[in-house]
Amino acid sequence: MSQENEIIEDEAMTVTLTYEDGTEDECIVMDIFSVEELGEQEYIALLAVPEGIEESEEELEGEIILYRYEELENDEINLEAIEDDNEAQIVQKAFEALLEEEAEEE
Fold first, then answer.
1. What b-and-e string marks burial along 68-95, b requiring 16 or more CB atoms within 10 Å of the CB?
2. Residue 34 pLDDT > 60
3. Sheet strand arrangement including 64-71
4. In whole angstroms, what is the distance from residue 89 CA to residue 1 CA?
5. Do 16 and 3 form a contact (C-beta atoms < 8 A)?
6. Is the separation of the CB atoms in 20 and 90 below 8 Å?
């Protein structure tokens, strides 16, 4: 899977996921975070944006996708699927905790 980063006029950073079959999904980067329990590994939470919806809409709904995240040279990134069920559960819980913290701050 390859990815492209782009900034949309001071709005959310997006990533375009390109799958092996050539299909693409544009996703909004919700957060990049690490999970203390899992060491130095970073993770990224992406919100898949359904076609026809503007990123500026207040209430975006879509599928949240979690990947292992790594920054490469030349502003490129590498995303890797989380295949281990235990790791996926830990990352999901950590992301949900981040969402709760953000909601409490608002």
1. bbeeeeeeebebeebeeeebeebbeebb
2. yes
3. 2-7, 13-18, 24-34, 42-48, 64-71, 77-81
4. 23
5. yes
6. no
